[in-house]
Amino acid sequence: MTVRIPLETLRAFAREALHRSGLGEQDAATAAEVVVYADEHGFTTHGSNALAGIYSPRLLDGRINPAAQPRTVHESASSAVLDGDGGLGLVTTSSPPTSRSPRPGRPASPWSPSATAATSGARATTRTAPPRPA
Predict the structure, then answer these.
(1) How far apart are the first and last CA of the chain?
(2) Residue 60: its pLDDT value, please?
(3) What is the pLDDT of residues 9-39, one digit of tens each?
(4) Residue pair 89/119 in contact by the 8 Å Cβ criterion
(5) What local confidence, expressed as pLDDT, does residue 20 receive?
(6) For residues 95 and 86, is the Cβ–Cβ distance under 8 A?
(7) Percent of the chain having pLDDT more than 70?
(8) Which of left, alpha, beta for 86 (phi over 0: left; psi -120 to 50: alpha)?
(9) Is there a contact between 8 and 17 (Cβ–Cβ < 8 Å)?
(10) Quick one: which of 53, 71, 72, 75 has its CA closest to 63?
(11) Residue 123: what pLDDT?
(12) Which residue segments constitute the domains of the chain, with CATH numbers given?
């Protein structure tokens, strides 16, 4: 039997479950967005089925760091290696590390996650080129 749950109900449930598992409110909201997106688009490996089996238990027992502070380890002209600090990949790959600042004389570049290891908090990223003028 298929049970349909409104996306906003699922989002609220996921946010609350992740927050009660130790994530801060903003990180729980970010991770809940990814969970709902995954379910909505058929990516079952990162959807709501992972809440009870992976994310919550690992947050509660310390295998995932709920207060991770991702940082840039190495940067080249076309890529960067980031340390996710053992955080939940759904959160650590959602935005660039807070310590990142543009190099003098160079504009800031947007970051785009290209690989995720949700349980280790590791990630690899590449810079995306800004759109070309028409």
Answers:
(1) 50
(2) 97
(3) 999 999 999 999 999 999 999 999 999 999 9
(4) yes
(5) 98
(6) no
(7) 70
(8) left
(9) no
(10) 53
(11) 42
(12) 7-60 (1.10.1530.10), 71-127 (no CATH)
